[in-house]
């Protein structure tokens, strides 16, 4: 339909309307191929009237040029409008253009138009130009019109080249960079600061974390509502594995993002998932012995462990497991070394701390002991010490006790301290400290070994008759031995993680007892008792030996 006020317009001819109707009805493709131009002045008048297109026309009034189309496409604004274009080079012309005709593959005039008179000069006339002639005409349907031209016989305008290049680039997987990438969901309108970047109109922004994933993508910033960028506003331009570089930002600056949603993709309907392919992870530059890597191969954490436990490597022997040296010669419980070597995770504690239960763990296995008690001494003063002190007791112990736990549970633990041996009658020996798991030992409580008892002043009496109350107890001291020498101290008790201290022999004339390795070995054992001194001497017996500290081993 033509506006009554229109002076220049294009219409389908009767032949053109019939051919389109036939194409719509039968589905036969309709191929438009050539454009003709004329001056509508067959009589050579000095001032001819403007022609008026007629549907009954089968030819132009005075056609002077007919060539293949340069471009044929659907108007992107109105899909019912066909745009046909032809380029007239600088070396053709010398005539007026007042009428335009469109021909199909059969050579029939199917559309006709008039235009404002335009003189197309020749170079030989002193003025030359390349002229574009374009016809826009309305059809009932574009479904059966073949939008096809022969690229070998046409010229391309700069606008056509630019449009074609931009359209081709838009379909590539690598997009033009964006100014910033939003680390969280944002409002898709107005000027705002995203990832520390103050945005201005025209900035491109990647929004990968919108509440509705279908809204994710590349947008252009505006004072009002944002729109998707021209290179990513069609489904064909948003393809799987699309890459988007990010220029600036506190969190996402200097990064590269990838669309990991597989096709087919319908923009505005399909949920789009973007992931950072390369970029900062918050780990400072440096050398790390142990690193954590994400699925993209990026380092997300780094540490520098200085022990086997830091690498989560089970030690080869019990001595390595608990940090013992070779000269301590601990007792190794049967089967514990194999259990440590096969455990998924191991905590070996000689000092108190806190355990956080790892993911997926519902049972832990506890082994260990409390601290051993100190050994007793013989008393001082003016009286003779006929007998020594008794040995300290060993700390209570346990082997691979199963304990129910929950993932993420925070459990404090205490490792029992070693009991201190008695220095003399003024400072009695102390018991070993308890080893506990959980507040106040709610999950596990191992009692410390008891202290040794100070020996008797009376000649011939039994020193330390009770021994150290532990698990087991230390042994009693001996009576006075022949030749008026003082009795020997008691042995410190041994436990499964270490041996007790040896007792001291009786004192010689005028001096204290002979020291014989009274300190306990390993973990949890009791200290040895001190021997008495000579009845007629004026010296003192030796002090009792120290117990050994406790130990806690947790496997999961």
Automatic annotation (TrEMBL):
Q: Where is the composition biased (Gly residues)?
A: 486-513
Q: Give the Phage tail fibre protein N-terminal domain ranges.
A: 6-158
> Where does the record place the region Disordered?
482-513
- Pfam families in the cross-refs: Gly_rich_2, Phage_tail_fib
> Which residue range or ranges hold the Glycine-rich domain?
352-556
- Listed name of the protein: Phage tail protein
User: What organism does the record attribute this protein to?
Assistant: Pseudomonas aphyarum
Q: Which domain of life is it from?
A: Bacteria
């Amino acid at each position: 339909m033509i506006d009554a006020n229109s002076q220049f317009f294009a219409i389908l001819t009767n032949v053109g309307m019939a051919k389109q109707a036939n194409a719509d009805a039968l589905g036969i493709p309709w191929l438009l191929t050539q454009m003709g131009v004329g001056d509508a002045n067959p009589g050579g008048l000095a001032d001819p009237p403007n022609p008026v297109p007629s549907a009954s026309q089968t030819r132009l009034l005075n056609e002077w040029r007919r060539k293949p189309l340069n471009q044929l496409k659907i108007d992107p604004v109105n899909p019912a409008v066909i745009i046909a274009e032809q380029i007239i080079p600088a070396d053709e012309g010398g005539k007026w253009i007042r009428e335009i005709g469109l021909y199909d593959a059969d050579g029939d005039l199917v559309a006709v138009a008039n235009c404002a008179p335009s003189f197309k000069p020749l170079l030989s006339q002193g003025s030359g130009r390349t002229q574009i002639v374009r016809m826009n005409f309305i059809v009932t349907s574009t479904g059966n019109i073949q939008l096809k031209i022969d690229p070998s016989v046409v010229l391309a305008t700069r606008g056509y080249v630019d449009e074609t290049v931009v359209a081709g680039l838009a379909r590539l997987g690598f997009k033009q960079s964006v100014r910033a990438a939003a680390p969280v969901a944002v409002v898709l309108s107005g000027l705002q600061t995203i990832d520390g970047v103050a945005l201005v109109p025209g900035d491109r922004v990647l929004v990968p974390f919108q509440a509705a994933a279908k809204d994710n993508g590349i947008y252009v910033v505006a004072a009002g509502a944002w729109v998707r960028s021209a290179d990513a506003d069609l489904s064909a331009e948003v393809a799987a594995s699309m890459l988007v570089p990010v220029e600036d930002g506190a969190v996402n600056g200097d990064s590269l993002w990838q669309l990991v949603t597989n096709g087919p993709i319908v923009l505005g309907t399909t949920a789009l998932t973007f992931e950072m392919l390369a970029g900062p992870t918050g780990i400072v530059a440096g050398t790390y012995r142990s690193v954590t890597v994400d699925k993209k191969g990026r380092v997300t954490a780094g540490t520098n462990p200085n022990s086997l436990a830091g690498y989560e490597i089970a030690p080869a022997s019990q001595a390595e497991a608990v940090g013992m040296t070779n000269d301590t010669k601990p007792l190794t419980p049967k089967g514990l070394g194999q259990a440590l070597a096969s455990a998924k995770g191991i905590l070996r504690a000689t000092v108190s701390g806190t355990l956080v239960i790892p993911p997926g763990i519902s049972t832990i296995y506890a082994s260990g002991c409390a601290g051993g008690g100190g050994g007793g001494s013989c008393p001082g003063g003016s009286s003779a010490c006929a007998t020594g002190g008794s040995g300290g007791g060993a700390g209570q112990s346990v082997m691979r006790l199963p304990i129910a736990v929950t993932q993420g549970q925070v459990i404090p633990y205490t490792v029992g301290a070693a009991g201190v041996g008695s220095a003399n009658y003024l400072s009695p020996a102390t018991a070993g400290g308890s080893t506990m798991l959980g507040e106040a030992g709610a999950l596990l409580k191992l009692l410390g070994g008891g202290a040794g008892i100070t020996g008797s002043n009376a000649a011939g009496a039994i020193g330390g008759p009770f021994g150290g109350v532990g698990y087991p107890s230390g042994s009693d001291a001996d009576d006075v031995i022949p030749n008026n020498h003082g009795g020997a101290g008691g042995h410190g008790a041994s436990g499964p993680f270490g041996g007790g201290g040896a007792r001291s022999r009786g004192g010689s004339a005028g001096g204290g007892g002979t020291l014989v390795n009274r300190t306990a070995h390993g973990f949890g054992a009791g200290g040895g008792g001190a021997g008495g001194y000579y009845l007629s001497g004026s010296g003192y017996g030796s002090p009792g030996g120290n117990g050994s500290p406790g130990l806690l081993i947790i496997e999961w």
